[in-house]
Design a protein that fits this description.
By secondary structure, the protein is of the alpha+beta class. It folds into 2 domains: about 5-150, no CATH class; about 270-415, Heat Shock Protein 90, CATH 3.30.565. About 60% of the residues lie in helices and about 10% in strands. The chain has helices at about 10, 15-45, 50-70, 75-95, 110-115, 120-140, 155-230, 240-265, 280-290, 315-330, 385-395, and strands at about 275-280, 300-305, 310, 335-345, 350-355, 400-405, 410-415. The strands form 2 sheets. It has a 5-stranded mixed β-sheet. The longest helix is centred in the middle third of the chain and has 77 residues, at about 155-230. The radius of gyration is 37 Å and the shape is elongated. The chain starts with 8 loop residues before the first helix and ends with a strand.
């Protein structure tokens, strides 16, 4: 007869519940067989109380199997098993010498079984009772009470050795079950991790190919619209010329959106290059790009002396380029200004990017780091809503954090740690 014949088919159909039931059935059978084997030996040793307790154990082991099979109630049968185990082990200890009993170690088997088989809410009752027995028996002895010892001294070493080996075997069953569960969960996690890696590679490849294939026809649209305006714009009325200009701007916006999506997808790469990056050089590159952009005139970009760090130069550039450009873009000041401060502590670098822009309302300060989250329409401020999402992803890739403190019309302060 296999173990599975003792477990209802409905329980076998649920893998996680089935593993718990199967383990507890094995332990129950071990206890029942051990009790059956020990009962006549205890009777021969004139250890009659122990014999009665073992007979009680066998009866309750059979009751547990029936209760589990016919009720299929995990909590009910688990509590029954834990209760009978506690009663049996405590009774054996009390009738075989108290804290010197060779059965004392059996209390160790109740906590792992209760925790594994029951919810924490149910298991903690039996953990508490086990603790009460483990501590209460020696305390009672210290107060002067002597527990009756029915075991003859000549048999005690052998019985203690057998109890130790039986308990070791029982704990090995529990350990092997936990080990098997760990292996199954670990294998599942490895499979899932492999699938995620393949999915990420496919998504990166798709983003690259899609962006490349989309940019080519967009460039054609932009080129032909510009060519049409240049050759025939003087023959057109103002209204159709305006429509063509809107089409050109929309195509340019689409091209920028594709570029930003591609850039964001590349930040998903879990491999972080570690190279010496001079942040002063990166900031000079940012300044050179923005100060030569005709969009930004009469602007000021200042930065402290910055350190050399071990990082990915591309990711670092993306962070500072987006933060500095946002400070200049979302700005109505006559002289847009951005300043990068740097301080060092024993544990981390801290960078602060401060601007005198339009500020961010408090209710939107968490949303701005989400993809495509824009607070302003294209007519007022152009952008795709991806820049700060790229900053957040790159900062988090290095285990850092980025926070914003801002008041409307009083500028913004981005802190990177």
């Amino acid at each position: 007869m296999s173990i599975n014949t003792l477990i209802p088919p409905s329980i076998q159909a649920e893998p996680s519940v089935y593993r718990s039931f199967r383990l507890i059935v094995i332990i129950d059978l071990v206890l029942a067989i051990s009790a059956t084997f020990f009962a006549p030996i205890f009777w021969w040793m004139d250890y009659h109380p122990g014999t009665y307790i073992l007979i009680y154990t066998v009866i309750n082991a059979l009751i547990f199997l029936g209760l589990m099979y016919y009720t299929q109630n995990h909590t009910l049968s688990g509590n029954f098993f834990s209760a009978q185990s506690w009663v049996v082990f405590t009774a054996l200890i009390c009738t075989s010498g108290g804290s010197t009993s060779p059965c004392y170690l059996w209390l160790l088997s109740i906590p792992p079984i209760a925790v594994y088989y029951l919810s924490w809410r149910s298991a903690r009752v039996w953990l508490l009772l086990t603790l009460v027995s483990a501590i209460g028996i020696p305390v009672v002895e210290l107060l002067g009470y002597t527990f009756t010892n029915y075991l003859r001294e000549v048999y005690r070493p052998y019985l203690a050795l057998f109890n130790y080996l039986a308990l070791l075997a029982l704990l090995m069953v529990v350990f092997q079950s936990f080990k098997g569960i760990y292996r199954r969960v670990n294998a599942k996690l490895l499979r899932t991790n492999g699938q995620l890696k393949r999915s990420n590679r496919d998504l990166e490849r798709f983003a690259f190919v899609a962006s490349h294939d989309l940019k080519s026809p967009l460039r054609n649209v932009i080129s032909f619209v510009r060519l049409f305006i240049r050759r025939h714009g003087h023959d057109l009325d103002p209204e159709p010329l305006e429509y063509l200009t809107i089409a050109e701007n929309s195509a340019l916006q689409m091209e920028q959106l594709i570029e930003d999506i591609l850039e964001y997808s590349q930040t998903s790469n879990p491999v972080l290059r570690e190279e010496a990056v001079d942040l002063n050089d990166q900031m000079r590159r940012v300044c050179e790009q923005l100060l030569h952009d005709p969009t930004y005139t009469n602007v000021s970009i200042e930065f402290d002396s910055l350190p050399v760090v071990k990082a990915d130069a591309v990711r670092i550039y993306q962070i500072f380029q987006n933060l500095v450009e946002n400070g200049l873009k979302y700005n109505r000041s006559a002289t847009p200004r951005v300043r990068v401060h740097y301080t060092a502590t024993e544990r981390e670098h801290q960078f602060v990017v401060e601007d005198n822009g339009i500020g961010i309302p408090p209710e939107f300060q968490e949303r701005i780091f989400k993809m495509f989250e824009r607070l302003h329409n294209q007519a007022n401020f152009q952008g795709t809503g991806i820049g700060l999402a790229i900053c957040l992803k790159n900062v988090q890739a290095y285990g850092g954090r980025i926070e914003v403190h801002s008041e409307v019309e009083e500028g913004s302060i981005f802190s990177l740690n």
